[in-house]
Design brief:
Length: about 270
């Protein structure tokens, strides 16, 4: 492990690489979304992958590696490469593949840099909406280069909450049950189809909270930093009623929302 100051990478430089590469990969994904794309299934009939997911991951790795040849890489579509530096790039080439396949808006490219196990920089490109989100730890979050900071002051009953559902049928049943306890206490639910963009929506104040169980590191690495640098409380709770739960929430409703979620998850686990 390199610890000397001269070997410590510049976090702003990592963020700039993430932005540049996410933006290039986003353009490629948007162009390809206009073509009929064949897909295969992965863990279940609803878990889709296309050639474009795989090509985009390869493109991202090549582009980052051309600037940072010694780094490590982890990608959803199978990339797992160990380099000699302390930086690991965590990549979701298309977050929201179901939307991408259906030509539905709401797919993005997510790239994060982890330094000694801490996410220090990241970018999420939403090419269909022309938005590029980024963050560098301790340096704030941005949308298209402008600093963003959550300004809304919701109450629990006025909160708009985003979530997502697993590709596993049995897990979905539990997730749907949780909603029956949550929905009466909040303003409404949104299921947009990309956890990475959902987290950026928390950062923008477009939703007041996001939660989902069973996500992978590549889904949330960049978006979590973007949400937390914009002022959200971001938590990964390893065992929340037996589930790994990811939450990003406007701090105005943090404790009420977590209590509500806890009770909804507890009640639903008793029901099923
Ligand atoms: C999925 C999206 C979706 C979430 C799923 C993820 P993918 O990622 O983020 O919103 O609900 O849990 O797996 O498969 O489109 O990369
Ligand atoms: Ca994903
Ligand atoms: Ca993906």
């Amino acid at each position: 492990m390199s610890t000397s100051a001269s070997n410590t990478p510049d976090i702003i430089e990592l963020r700039n690489i993430a932005c540049d590469v996410a933006s290039q990969a986003g353009k490629y994904v948007l162009e390809e979304s206009k073509n009929q794309v064949l897909h295969e299934t992965k863990s279940s009939a609803s878990d889709l992958v296309t050639e474009i997911d795989k090509h985009t991951e390869a493109l991202i790795v090549d582009l980052v590696r051309s600037q940072r040849p010694d780094d490590s890489f982890l990608g959803e579509e199978g990339t797992s490469q160990k380099g000699s530096s302390d930086v690991l790039w965590v990549i979701d080439p298309i977050d929201g593949t179901t939307n991408f396949v259906h030509e539905h808006p709401g797919f993005g490219v997510s790239i994060a840099a982890k330094l000694d196990d801490v996410i220090v920089a990241g970018a999420v490109a939403d090419p269909k909406h022309g938005e590029l989100f980024d963050a560098a730890i301790g340096n704030g979050a941005r949308c298209n280069g402008e600093l963003i900071r959550i300004e809304r002051s919701p109450k629990l009953e006025t909160a708009l909450v985003a979530t997502g559902f697993s590709y596993e049928a049995s897990e979905r049943k539990t997730q749907a049950k949780i909603l029956t306890y949550l929905l009466p206490a909040i303003a409404d639910i949104r299921r947009m189809g990309s956890a990475a963009i959902d987290l950026c929506s928390v950062a923008m104040g477009r939703v007041d909270a996001f939660y989902e169980t069973g996500l992978n590191e590549w889904d949330i690495a960049a978006g979590s930093l973007i949400a937390s640098e914009a002022g959200a409380k971001v938590l990964t709770i390893k065992s929340f009623v037996g589930e790994t739960l990811h939450v990003a929430v406007n701090t105005c409703i943090e404790s009420e929302f977590l209590n509500l979620l806890h009770s909804a998850m507890e009640k639903s686990s008793r029901d099923i």
